[in-house]
Design brief:
By secondary structure, the protein is of the alpha+beta class. The protein contains one helix and eleven strands; from the N terminus they run H-E-E-E-E-E-E-E-E-E-E-E. The protein has two domains: about 50 residues; about 90 residues, Immunoglobulin-like. Strands 6-8-2-1-11 form a five-stranded mixed β-sheet, with no helix packed on it. Strands 5-4-9-10 form a four-stranded antiparallel β-sheet, with no helix packed on it. A two-stranded antiparallel sheet has the order 3-7. The N and C termini lie far apart (about 105 Å).
């Protein structure tokens, strides 16, 4: 085997070594990103399964509307990310006169506590509360004269 054959084999060998090194780096970072994505998805699924809310009361009397819901799950829910639908229409929580957790102004809604939303509105038939992760509860509004 002459020098030209040995030299060309050496160039090919180094080229393959460099190609395999860069391919390993790409495959390694892709594998880490995939593992992080699967971990994030698993955490989101756990959060959804651990979140539950129920309507305690929903009443309307003389333009005064109030509903109370309980956080019956084990997840803390951010109050400022809640969505309220009254008769299917979006109502920002900022437009209500009162949004309290167990009677206190709070930005978090802990498990086992009640969230009360109150304000003035026309006579509603239904109310729906949706959390930041999409868990929702809906029910009729009791109208008293």
């Amino acid at each position: 085997m002459g020098f030209s054959t040995s030299g060309s084999l050496l160039v090919i060998f180094f080229g393959l070594l460099i190609a395999l090194g860069s391919m390993y780096a790409a495959i390694s970072s892709t594998g880490e990103a995939l593992a992080d994505g699967v971990s994030d998805q698993s955490e989101r699924i756990d959060t959804v399964h651990e979140t539950d809310i129920t309507i305690v009361t929903a009443t309307w009397e003389d333009d005064s509307f109030e509903f109370t819901t309980e956080n019956t799950g084990v997840t803390t829910i951010p109050v400022d990310e809640l969505t309220v639908l009254v008769d299917g229409e979006y109502q920002p929580t900022e437009e209500f006169d009162e949004v309290t957790v167990d009677g206190d102004d709070s930005t978090i809604w802990k498990p086992g506590t009640d969230l009360t939303v109150a304000g003035e509105t026309a006579e509603p038939e239904r109310v729906k509360l949706i959390t930041d992760i999409g868990i929702s509860v809906a029910g009729p509004v009791e109208v008293t004269a």
